[in-house]
Every structure is written in structure tokens, then in C-alpha cells.
Amino acid sequence: MIQITNLVKSFGNHQVLKNLSINITNNKSGLIYGFLGKNGAGKTTTMNILVGLSRFDSGECVVNGTKINNKRRTFIESIGYLPESPGLHNYMTAYEYLHYLCNLFMDSTTASVRAEELLDLSGLSSSRDRKIGGFSRGMKQRLGIVGTLAHNPKLIFLDEPTSALDPEGRYQVLALLEKLKDQGKVIFLSTHLLDDVERICDRVGILDDGRLVKEGSIEDLLNNEVGHTYNIEIKESNQLERLAKEIEAMQKTNKITIKNSKLQVTFNDENDYKSLLNHLLTNNYTLVDFSKHKTKLEDVFLSIYRGEKQ
Amino acid sequence: MKTYLKKEVLYGMRNYKFLIIFAVYIFFALFDPLMLKFLPIILADQFGGMDITEAMAIDQAGAIQNFLNTNYQIVTLVIAIALMGLVASEIKDKEIIIPTCLGMSLKKWIVSKIFVYSIFIIASSIIAQLICNIYALTIFEGRSIEISASLKIGLLMGVFHIFILSLIIFFGALTKKHGISAFLALLAAYTLPALTGLFNISKYTPAGLINEAGYLVSYFSTDGIISLVWSVGAIAIIILLSLITIESTELV
User: Fold this and answer.
1) At the topology level of CATH, where does A2-218 sit?
2) Whole-angstrom Cα distance, residue B132 to residue A58?
3) What ranges do the domains of chain A cover?
4) Residue B14 to residue A92, Cβ atoms within 8 A
5) 20 to 30 Å CA-CA from B194: which of A98, A208, B27, B90?
6) Is residue B39 exposed (0-12), middle (13-18) or buried (19+ Cβ within 10 Å)?
7) Cross-chain Cβ contact B102/A55 below 8 Å
């Protein structure tokens, strides 16, 4: 579906993408692929190249079987693209806009039917005759998303679709994306909102400094990437430093931190917590809390990013 | 192509582009004759009671000549400002990304703009000249300029403004900046008559259209025909360059 091999793109002397390689295949009916990275990592640049709108220096990109030309714009059939902060024709009504998009490649009568279908899908039917200029950001995003679906593409690229939206707007956009996934669409979603990714994505790729530094399913990343972390609180809070040294001496942990009179201990092996628990009990520490820390994608992201920098 | 044209008409109507340009044309078509009518009264005090009607033409021809100057100076400016975002803003505001990914033809997109606004400009220019002619006839005694002459003047000034429109579209596609595209088009509009006059080549450029219009006659001189042919050729070349440019312009 998407194959990127050794992609290089520079703006002047600044190399944004450095031999980026990604391979996304999909055997399932629907998929949401989260493309993560901090600002300036190269997410938007990658997307612009993948949809055939931007040139690149070297490498190879194949999207939906179409090889992208690195010298001129390439039209790829059956993809849709919603850029970050897309301009919609604010002087049109929602219906007129969708009809215009559909009418670009189908006759007017069929376009009318398709426009109504898309309005239904976006949940904007009640605002069909309102000018887009008067829409909220969330409504515009939903309209933009369904606009990209006018020709019923299999693959959709969305660049930061939930950024700058209020919680209600975000919820509605995410619900729409889940609906599209259920319809069998493959969504390539660029974002830095990790909560959104954790909620709706099946797989993620993390981009840093123009390279893909991690790729996998959300489940795998959450379970395997940052180890198994436990929060420990003892009544003898003045002995936390001593306890930390004792745990370190056990040589089963890869990270120990003290924060707000609590210890956070990360094990490589899931079962190593048992020996720690045993140590605490045999040394007469009074346990106030001993709980498994729920790993979030943010932990994975920070762990990978900091690891890369060390 | 019908979809592209409908979209441009809607854009022009809903963003008041048609209204603004047409209103400016008509306003000066009525204002210039009226100003000329009252000019002797306005200037009487400043010239110590001297009759300035002996120094300048205060008649229908003078009114049409005045409107011609305004048309070149002010209407050109208004057209450039009103239409400067026609291509540049749509690219800059990423309005063409979604349609382009759906297979929109950028060539048709450019051609539809030229087509819609050219027809509108030609129609407005001719209507304004006719209004100016008829109105001037009602407030000044005696006809000196035929209706057919005003039709010709309207056509020539319309073609000159289409030349400006083509420059705005070309520079918009090239720079993706609406302010720069308007500035460059206006620079060409205002310096062309002086520069080409310097080398005596006005008739081979759109500046010759203004010269020809200034004769206020219904027939075309040889130089006028040459200017018209060269101007239409120049517009065609600029449109062609715009089509080539837009295909290589990065839209993101």
C-alpha cells in the first residue's frame, strides 16, 4: 500500500528526510496508521511527497501501486489528502462544496447523490445550506475529511486533523475516523496528539530527525518498549534513597526514579517485580502503594526519543 | 469544464469581485462626465473668473477622454487589487489540495478563471463606455462621439485589462503571493506606455490599445489593429506560460 525506500528530501542545506524507509501493507479491512514525531521531524514533508504534491531528492515511493515521480507532480488514483489547516471554499455552502468536488469527476446528478451521502457521513446534513465560512473548526475538519472521500478512495492521508480543535470537535473527528476505518478505509494519520493515536490507531511509526525510529502495533509498543514499571510508596519516606540503592543492587531494573516521595521502578522482565516485593516485605518496609504503572504512548514516545538522543 | 466555470462564477459573486469591479466601472463612467460638467464652476474662483472652457474640452468628447484616463489609472488598480488572490491565494490557502487529489485539472482551473473574468471585464468595460457616452450626451450639448466609438474604446480597454488579469494569474502561479502578483502586474501596466513610448514600440504592446482608444473614433487605425493583434498574442503567451508554470509549481 505504501512503500518508501531511502527517501531523501532537503530544503536548501537542511536535510529533512534522511533515507526514510517505511513499508505499510494492510491485510485487514480497515487500518489507522499513526505517523508520529515532534514538530519539524518531517511528517508533513513525507505526506506531501506521498500524495505526489512535493518533489524529493532521491529514494523511491510507491503508493497504491503508483510510483511517485520525484521531478513533477504525480496524480495517484484512489487516495485522498487533507492537509493541515486546509482551505475550503468559505463562500460555498457545505452541499455546494461537496457537489463541486464530486462534479469534478462525475456528472451533476450523480454528484448530488454523492454529496448528500458525504454530508450524512460527516454528520453535517443539518448544516448543508450554511456557508462554510461560518463553520466551527471541527465542522470544517469533518467537511474536509469527507471532501477527500468524494471519489471513495481506499487510502486517506490526514495531516494533524485534530490539532487546534476543542474536545467536542476532536471527539467528533475521531469518531468519524473510526467510522471510516469500519468502512474499510486505510488512514495514514499524522499527529502529535498521542492520546488520539492511542485511542484510534492500530499501528504507529515514530519519526525523528528524518528517520523512522520505531514502528509497530500500539499493543507491542506499550508492552515491550518501555519495560514494566511499578509505583512504590512506603511509609518510611525518609528511607527512599536507601531503598533505591538496594533495588539497584538487585540488578534487575533498568530505571529507578524518585518523584514526589514515590519510587518508580522499571523492570525488563515482567516477573521481576516479585523479587522486589519479597525484598520490601523481608526488610520490614511498610508499603503504602505498590501498583503497576499503566504505560502510555507518551512514555514510549519519550523513551524512544530520549534513547535516541543518548 | 462547466464545473470549473460554475465555481469561478460563484467565487466572483459571493466574494463581491464582480460587484466591486462593475461598480467602479459604472461609478467613474458617471462621475467623470459630472465632474467635467462642474469643473468650470469649481475652478472659476481659482482662475479669477477666467473661462476655462477655452483651455480644455468641456464636452462629451472631453468627458469620454477623462473616463478613459480614469479607466487606465484607477480601474486598472481596482481590478489588480480585487483579483490579486485569484490564483495566488487559492494556492497559498491550500484550497486546491483536496480538489487536486481528486483529479482536478490545474490547466482547466486556470483557463476557467481567464474565461470567466475576461468575459466579465469586456462586458463591464463596454457597458461602462456606453453609459459614459450616453450620460455625457445628456449633460453636454451636441454629440461628438459615436456609440460605435465607445464600443471600440470599451473593447480596447477591456483587452488591456484582460492583459493585466493574465499577468496577475501568471505572477500568482509563479510566486504564490497575491501582493507580489498585483504589484508586478501594476508595475507592468503603469510603466509599459512610458517605456514602449520611449522606444516607439507602443503599437506592438498593450500600451498601443490605450493610444488607439484615445483617438475616440469608431474605426481602427492600422496601428490599432497591430496593437490589438499583438496584445491578444501577448495574453495568449502569458496564459500559456501560466499553464506551464502551474504544472511545475509546488502546491504545498
Assistant:
1) Rossmann fold (3.40.50)
2) 61
3) 2-218, 227-294
4) yes
5) B27
6) middle
7) no
Task: Tell me which chain A residue has its CA closest to the CA of residue B14.
Answer: A91
d(CA B25, CA B71): 7
Using CB atoms, which residue from A86, A92, A150 is nearest to B97? A86
CA gap B96, A87 in Å, rounded: 8
3-state helix, strand and coil shares in percent for chain A, rounded to the nearest 5: 40, 30, 30
Q: Enumerate the residues of chain B whose CB falls inside 8 A of the CB of residue A79.
A: 101
Q: Which residue has the cell 457545505?
A: A94
User: What is the CATH topology of the domain spanning A227-294?
Assistant: Alpha-Beta Plaits (3.30.70)
In chain B, residues with a C-beta closer than 8 Å to the C-beta of A105 are 102-103
Task: Look up residue A135 and give its three cell numbers.
Answer: 463553520
Q: Looking at residue A310, what is its pLDDT?
A: 38
- ipTM at complex level: 0.85
10-residue stretch averages of pLDDT, chain B, 252 residues long? 94 95 95 87 70 73 92 94 93 91 91 96 96 91 84 95 96 94 94 87 91 90 93 96 90 82
Q: What is the pTM of this model?
A: 0.81
Opening angle at CA A130, ends A129 and A136, nearest 5: 140
Task: Please check whether residue B198 touches A, CB under 8 A.
Answer: no
Q: Do B11 and A89 touch (CB under 8 A)?
A: yes
